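Quick one - inputs below.
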Amino acid sequence: MIQSVDRAVRILTALQGARRMGLGELATQLELAPSTVHGIVRTLLDHGMIAQERDSGRYRLGPATLRLGNVYLDTLELRSRSVPWAEDLAARTGVAVRTAVLLAGVDRDLPERDVIVVAHEPRPGGGRQMNEVGIVVPAHACALGKALLAFDDTALPETDTLRSMTGETITDPARLRDELAAVRAAGIATEAEEAVLGEYGVAAPVGDHSGAVVGAIGLVVTQADWPLDPAAADALRATARSISRELGAASWPPAVTERPAASA
Amino acid sequence: MIQSVDRAVRILTALQGARRMGLGELATQLELAPSTVHGIVRTLLDHGMIAQERDSGRYRLGPATLRLGNVYLDTLELRSRSVPWAEDLAARTGVAVRTAVLLAGVDRDLPERDVIVVAHEPRPGGGRQMNEVGIVVPAHACALGKALLAFDDTALPETDTLRSMTGETITDPARLRDELAAVRAAGIATEAEEAVLGEYGVAAPVGDHSGAVVGAIGLVVTQADWPLDPAAADALRATARSISRELGAASWPPAVTERPAASA
DNA sequence: ATGCGCGTTCGGCATAGTCGAAATGTGTTC
DNA sequence: GAACACATTTCGACTATGCCGAACGCGCAT
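Output:
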């Protein structure tokens, strides 16, 4: 692991937590000398990965990050394959559809993982709605995350208390494991106000040609539409299976990605 | 400039050009030993900035880039201030509205600069339209870019032939300089099929409290709607002035950011 | 069965990055 | 208006760190 590159990414991550930071703040948070941080920051600055406010001298993320993120979306086959199916699913069920992938482990020693939304089809006829692509939710607190965790054993959090988002969030790892087992059996995960109050949802895993899970697709509704029509869950399952097939998956639900047996 | 950080960003930039690359390809393109590239790639991999295809071993951009880009948008005051004005402008003129900023210099020795769209208000009643946030256009080939270049002397390309996008693209720096002078005088830049065939537009600069230009806002139309109603240009100018005022600008158009006199 | 191409690992050398301290600049207070 | 205090930036020396070349393992195609 290259030290300075690691530090550079940590700086970007710090800036994504706090909107603006001074050089000293960054140095304190990373426990480094200000001059060390300055060298890295300067390099990122030259590439537009971060920007410096002309007056205060503080640093923010830069426009180059937007370009990277946008290209990522363009190159994501899961996304391009999902979009037509999501449109169809939204039209038939009348609710919003999200597609998400698992985000890599957070830099700090947080053992929890997040999911990030890579495609969003708004609720039909719902007027002007926020585009939710790019939003991040703790994996254990949402249906999309549960669908991903259930079929990826390497992504399971290793902690004894999960971060609570609302009063309904599952914070007990044992209870989470039980629920993930149920998800594996049903092929569908659910969420009831566990991430955001008033938000409910179901989600199903999507696999690819390697047989592993690569993403999840799900429906998001408010309390008024909960519980969902069972037909919606069936349509979701069928959609997840179709997308998986387009990505080359031989079967559905995907096989569980096993932890690589650290008994070496 | 920290060498390894610089190389890391170059790797990300290379991956944003070619969707997928093998380690060897990356090493060749950066003119480095494969093992050197591997160390950096491995570090970026751990942070989710890039992802590795499980079968081919090749590398792609990773989901962490999406999160960075999304946070960048959230922290961009230009964007949040623009959105309400852009909605209003689109409603009154009936055309799509884009807001953009200047992208930092490209890594390779290309002296040209690009603009990147940070907000996009679709044409009212135009049905389902692609979200254009994140798209990149050469600055010299679009109205948004000309509005930015006209008021930022430090961003002028230093070359004798500009990259051609269509037959209409301005490739002669002298002609570009003339046009930028006209933009400074009028406060409005125009574009006629210079970036994309069939695409026309006008744009105006937006400044902030430092007095410098920080972005541009513009209207995009097809040939059928060109030339625009002069009232639309007036509305655009008024909008750019309003956003600038909200950002703390004392006057409009913004002052020209001078090149820092490299006669040291 | 065997060669090739690829990603990956390992170790020594030397470069390149890190850190302390000093300098510059800017905003603020008295 | 001047001096303080804070924060960013520059500079130089040390040495820890990342760079590279070579060897390994793997999968694929021949």
